[in-house]
Amino acid sequence: MRAASMLRLFSLRGLPWGLGNGGQEKVELTAAEVESLRSELADMEEREAQLKAQLENIDEILRSSRLSGYLYIRSRWAALPGEPPPIDDTDIDDWLPRFIVLHGACLYLYMLCTDLSPLDSTLLSDIVEVGRLPSFKCEDNEMRYAFFILTRHGLRYECSSSSKIKVCPS
After folding, report:
1. Are 69 and 99 in contact (CB under 8 A)?
2. Which chain positions lie within coiled-coil regions (predicted)?
3. Which residues have CB under 8 Å from 127's CB, separation 6+?
4. pLDDT by residue (tens digit) across 105-118?
5. Residues in Cβ contact with 4 at an 8 Å cutoff, skipping those fewer than 6 apart
6. C-beta of residue 109 within 8 angstroms of C-beta of residue 123
């Protein structure tokens, strides 16, 4: 396979490839195509700068946080006065991995560690109780250790991890 044929496989949006003098390959571009490529390059550089700024922001949050890491979490609400008690849903596997950051006086829950905005947050002053939950085996027979965090608003975060060290203080 000749070099010109190989270049056509990797061409950008069908840019014309032609043979120059002496059998050397060259790209023949119109002024409009050159300007389009410059515009695309500028857009990519701007996007790269935005992504670098986002990573620096995340890096700063993680460096200044007191604690961060992934836990499996599910949320439950306490029954309001006059409501029937919540159904027993211990058999439902609705544990979702979330990235938790304890930063300042707040606990933040992110979908991924690279997200800029948290899905949820709770002030530490709103937490009224923290306690252990029974350990359990998930579908893949992996042992999970669990605990809960209860807020004064009735929101209960149930958290679990396969690492006993993450959830059970010595």
Report:
1. yes
2. 27-64
3. 107, 149, 150, 151, 152
4. 889 999 988 888 88
5. 17, 18, 19, 25
6. no
